[in-house]
Design goal:
alpha+beta, 2 domains, six-stranded mixed sheet, four-stranded antiparallel sheet, 3 helices
């Protein structure tokens, strides 16, 4: 039996070819809320030695998913998932053999609505010793179209002068990610608003860095039923600093310009409460 060296411990890999051929980014199902929607993708896991040669007939005693918490915008301190696998999905099988030719193990990953990235940990026995190796590659789990959620309102022209960013928390510190075109439209709206009324907009939640479920209470549940694809934006309108004032002329102008820029009128949510805000929908 071939002995794994220190170098080979780093060479447990998700096949790059398999990832490209099947699905390098797992697309999350769209949903109006809850944790019931999921999608699946298959990956091949295999062991290789220090020369990147596959190792046959290796019995994998356990396969475990390792969640990289900050990658999805859910920072350390976020509550644990109340029901195992209900938040991040699951995978099959739990153990396998790499086969006589070292072809590896086909793993079917079932993703949920949380945008994040994961690695697989494979546990096995080598020369009487238990070993545990992580996959070389991360698997990115994003909202459908998630790779497009690469832009952020942070640092855009006008920040601080035509708009401010609010709503970040210790569990979701980066809450202003959006699709590039949508971010540009938000920047334009703030610029026009400032030029017309000499005021700033207060942009609250957009989406998390990989999209997916944005559980503002850090409990793996809505109330944010949208904010998953980088095409939603809340704007403060509750009378607090930099909110849209309770002025019919200004609000009518605001609604008209949003409709013109984004192709759809905004929705006034939580009217009359301390959370009153406009919700902007992108295309």
């Amino acid at each position: 039996m071939e002995r794994l060296t220190r170098a080979s411990k780093r060479l447990l890999a998700v096949s790059p070819v398999t990832m490209v051929a099947l699905l390098p980014h797992v697309a999350l199902a769209q949903s109006d809320g809850g944790m019931g929607f999921s999608s699946q993708a298959a990956f091949t896991l295999f062991l290789v030695d220090e020369n990147d040669q596959v190792l046959p007939n290796r019995q994998i005693t356990e396969i475990v998913r390792r969640w990289n918490t900050p990658d999805g915008g859910h920072a350390p301190g976020h509550s644990a998932c109340p029901v195992p696998n209900s938040c991040l999905g699951g995978h099959t099988p739990a153990q396998c053999n790499t086969g006589p030719n070292g072809a590896g193990c086909v793993i079917v990953l079932t993703s949920r609505e949380v945008g994040t990235s994961i690695r697989f940990e494979m546990r096995f026995v080598e020369n009487g010793q238990e070993r545990s190796l992580l996959t070389r590659n991360k698997i990115n789990i994003t909202s459908r179209g998630g790779p497009n959620i690469q832009s952020s309102m942070v640092g855009r022209p006008g920040q601080g002068s035509t708009f401010v960013l609010i709503g970040s928390t210790t569990t979701h510190p980066n809450n202003h990610y959006c699709r590039s075109a949508f971010c540009e439209d938000l920047t334009q709206l703030a610029s026009e608003y400032n030029a017309r009324w000499s005021r700033r907009l207060a942009y609250n939640d957009s989406s998390l860095i990989k999209g997916g479920l944005f559980d503002i209470s850090a409990n793996w549940q809505p109330p944010h039923n949208l904010h998953r694809t980088g095409r939603d934006q809340d704007v403060r309108a509750n009378g607090a600093a930099d909110s849209i004032p309770f002025n019919s002329e200004i609000r009518q102008w605001f609604v008209t310009r949003i409709t013109a820029i984004f192709g759809r009128a905004p929705l006034l949510e939580s009217s009359g409460t301390s959370n009153e805000h406009y919700h902007i929908f992108g295309e």
